[in-house]
Amino acid sequence: MTASTVALWSCGLFFLTGLLTGVWKYVQIRGSDKARAHYYVDTAHRASLMYAFACLVLERFAALSVWPEWVNVLAVLASVLFFALAVGSYILHGALKDTRNQLQKPHTFGSGFLPAWMMTAFMWALVAGEIGGFLVLFAGFAAA
């Protein structure tokens, strides 16, 4: 599978997730006295749609990169993996209705808590994966 194909599949799946979480958001708004969805349901909806379009950006840079295909695939996967983990965490928090700020200490997860070091490690891995993946593709484009 090419990097462009991975990016396009990811785009489609994030867009579909955005549409489905939009329905979930609407249902929550309809059932709310304040006409609002849970914070993380709204966040999952918006982030999914934005990541869908981010995947199109990744696809274009992967298509124009001079690096070997396996490098481009890994770069796309690095970004997409962390996009998916972010959206997944938003969906979980929206379903559990356990927090309005997953970065606030203590880090709530359902009825339990995550250690601060775990959240810090995940966030730095996310930074490295998303930015690093794109930088590889951007460098491959710039080298063309």
Q: What topology emerges from the helices and strands here?
A:
Layout (H helix, E strand, L loop, with lengths): L2 H28 L8 H26 L4 H28 L10 E3 L2 E3 L1 H27 L2
Antiparallel strand pairs: 1-2
Helix pairs in contact: 1-2, 1-3, 2-3, 2-4, 3-4
Task: Note down, in words, how this protein is organized.
The structure is a single chain. The longest helix is centred in the N-terminal third of the chain and has 28 residues, at about 5-30. About 75% of the residues lie in helices and about 5% in strands. The two termini are about 20 Å apart. It has a two-stranded antiparallel ribbon. It contains 4 helices and 2 strands, in the order αααββα. It is mainly α. The protein is flat.
How would you sum up the global shape? flat
Structural class: mainly alpha
Query: What order do the SSEs take from the amino end to the carboxyl end, as H and E?
Result: HHHEEH
Helical content stands at over 70%
* Rounded average pLDDT: 95
Based on DSSP secondary structure assignment, what is the total number of beta strands? 2
Please give the count of helices. Answer: 4
Main sheet properties? 2 strands, antiparallel
Question: Between the first and last Cα atoms, what is the distance in angstroms?
Answer: 22 Å
Q: Using only CA atoms, what is the Rg? A: 17 Å
Strand-residue fraction? under 5%
Strand numbers in spatial order across the main sheet = 1-2
pLDDT < 50 stretches: none
